[in-house]
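Rotation project, supervised by the postdoc (A.L.). Task for the rotation student: set up a whole-complex structure prediction and record inputs and outputs verbatim in this book. Inputs entered:
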Amino acid sequence: MTGTGRKDGIRKAATQERESQPGPAPAGTRCPEQAAATHGRAAARSPGTASSLPAFFLVAAFVAVAGAPLAAALAVSSRGGGLLASLGAALAAPVTARALSFALRQALASMVLAVAVGLPGAWLCSRYDFPGRKLLKSLSVVPFCVPPILIVLAFVVYYGRAGILNRALMGAFGLSQPPITFLYSFWGLVLVHGFYNFPVVLQGVSATWSTLPRDREEAARTLGAHPFRAFLTGSLPSLAPSIIQSAALVFLFCFFSFIPVLVFGPLGGTTLEVEIYRAARFDGKEELAAALSLIETVAALGMVFVFQLMDRRNTAAARKAGSLQKRGRPRGGAAAALIAYGALVIVFFAGPLLSLVAQAFVVKRGLGGSSRIGFDNFAHLLSGNGPLLASLMDSLATALPAAIAASIFGSLLAVVLRGRKGGRAGEALVTLPLAVSGVVSALGWSIIAPSGSPAVVVLALAATALPFSLRNVSSSLATLDKGPSQAARSLGAGRLRTTLEIDLPSIAPALFSAAAFSFSLTAGDANAPLILGSGGFQPLPVLIYRLVAAYRFPEASAVGLVLALLTGFVFFIKEQSDGRT
Amino acid sequence: MHKRHLPFIALSLALLLVSCAKKPESELVIYTYDSFVAEWGAAPGLAALFEKETGIKPTFVSKGDGGQLLQAVLLEKDKPEADIVLGLDNNSLAKAVDSGLFKAYKPKGLEAIPADIRLDEGNRLIPFDYGHFAIIWDSKTLPNPPASLEDLTRPEYAKKLIIMDPRTSTPGLGFLAWTKAVYGDAWKDYWKRLTPSILAMTPSWDTGYGLFTSGEAPLVLSYATSPAYHLENDKTDRYRALEFSDGHTLQVEFAGIVKGAKHPVNAERFMDFLISAEAQEVLPLTQYMYPANPEAKLPDSFSLALKPAKTLGNVVLASDDAAQAAEILATK
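Outputs recorded:
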């Protein structure tokens, strides 16, 4: 199916271990566009470090790669009666307004839930040391690489009418009917989206919260303010940027969501993403699909812009953030809150994921569908003609080059953009790939290269990963100590030599971290390889998709686990590498 | 640059080169939908048999879902890369024939194929397998199954049915055509009455069937041959196809030679091969559809596949029927 691409991009942004980048919080804790903006401001203080010509070419290349799908959509929607006619026709169709309104409503509601669940966790993680703290924070890593189709099945296996939760409740209370039946409704969809995404908020906000000086909140409490009020006046203004940033990412993910919307949403519900897919892939109305793509992208950009406006008001407050604050052992009320929160996370979030892991070991056999537990699914996938190893190689062959390309290009871009006044245009530019959904990206690239090839897949995936690697390296550059390189230059070292021998080694960890991050981001994408790949090319997400399409759910879960382990392994190396710096 | 990163980078660059490298020239290119090319799909078996027989190595290329296949071919209209397109169904038949993309060719042994599935009289598209749409019933969790489309609307089946979205999937369209074949213009009223019975309308067959086997609902739209899969692979006869008194509509799958194909001779040989009994015997256990050629032997598990007594004629859907159906469900 579709709708996977952008999702991964968006959510993985928030999984970055921000604490690993010490120093002033603003650059390290914000979106690429905001990070770029911060550098722009920093530029006023330090002279530019790159000449204009390479900068121009790099930015032009970025625009070309990131904007290619949109340019294709623009070209296609301009055919026939022209761009305005296509846009007019798309806007005039009643289904467009319905799709847009539904997409906005469910995405906003899901975002609110994700923030509501994520914030208490962020507070606990930033204030207290407890067993499972790192696990809680890295929970966000796990579902990023799992294709939505498996997430849907995981939620069904867990929350469904015959699911684990309902069976447990029916057994415990002697009920004859399943008590949890709201899954297939607006609020069911919001629950799935919200609980699937809250770690994005938890992760993003706790990074800022950990470095937030507590004096203001403590001062307010000393003066007799209620703890909640003290939080509102003391900490919230400084946290706002990171809350808004992670909320915006969750919003975009839900706005572009595809399979969960159709499965769990109200019957006959539709979003722009669904309408684009339908028009392009089913009805053959390419002009309409292209016009709808433009509308969706503009709507997404508009929402991101609104979030940025809200953010700007609070930026000054956030700058005051300092070094990592001490964490204590939870006692009394905090311990109780922690236990309650842990239970909430286990019941609502970890449950579905664990049921997916369990599913990977289920071996079906015998009459009546009885089953047992074992490694048969893996053994079968690895045996003689089994597809797993070849698929793993295909995944490596796409994700590694895409990750390397994205991180090298992202770093170059970060270097030339460093110390430049970005301005709003620059910010919008870097945001662009985030606002292009998976379906739109695949549609655009398939217009450019109709026959497709693994190379096109690599290019499309690299474009997806670019904003994140750019952000990663930008943050690292922002905290770079300029002393050594200035010293080297004053001692007569050339610019190239300084860059190669002093600056590059200091950002190498960030570069590697960007590559690892881009790798996990691209390894989980099924959309680009499915639509743009060619025969015999079968990376892991495509294999999962095909297994699910062939009734083989346990084997699909097994491959999902392999994909999660692969991504987890790469993240582990990255963490080790980050940890040493 | 840290030394420990170098192997990763070297490996990646090597892989980048490999992924950009040109593939060797192919002798026969067949565009098909995704599940056909999977390891457990029909393509590997057919390719091996065909190569053994003729020495020609066919290349199967997946072009996404069934619904996307025709779009992919239309995009390449002026510069066809495919010799054969395999996997178009009766819903897209008229559009495919009208596109003028396909060359008439009468494969050897076509007479053996029943006339009622040879829907293109000009022989541009040749049927290779077929199956009836049917509601599959989980006999373990629902005591009294429905016996007609009208039965499905009864309150006892409230939220017990999973169907696929006609806007995004072929079985979804097939179900819509089925209701239109039975109710004619009154299909919209039927969909209104049916709405309370529907638990979910999924974007594709796989998601819907996954929900069904996870026990979400005891009734799901699928094919009359689906129970054969469970008997063959899960050794269970728990899932049954329900025979409806209204009759059932058919899905027929077609293949055809593309005009201007680069390997026309090889393409004709493949079409001859495709409807031969030998090739057709690959299909039941990979496609879980009935082979078009009745001379092909069926596996034992097909004893549980339903062959309905009454087959309804092919219904042509209007272009906005699917959107209207969704609208009906959305407004209730």
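Student's summary: Residues 6-20 of chain B form the longest helix (15 residues).
Supervisor addendum: The longest strand of chain B covers residues 126-138.
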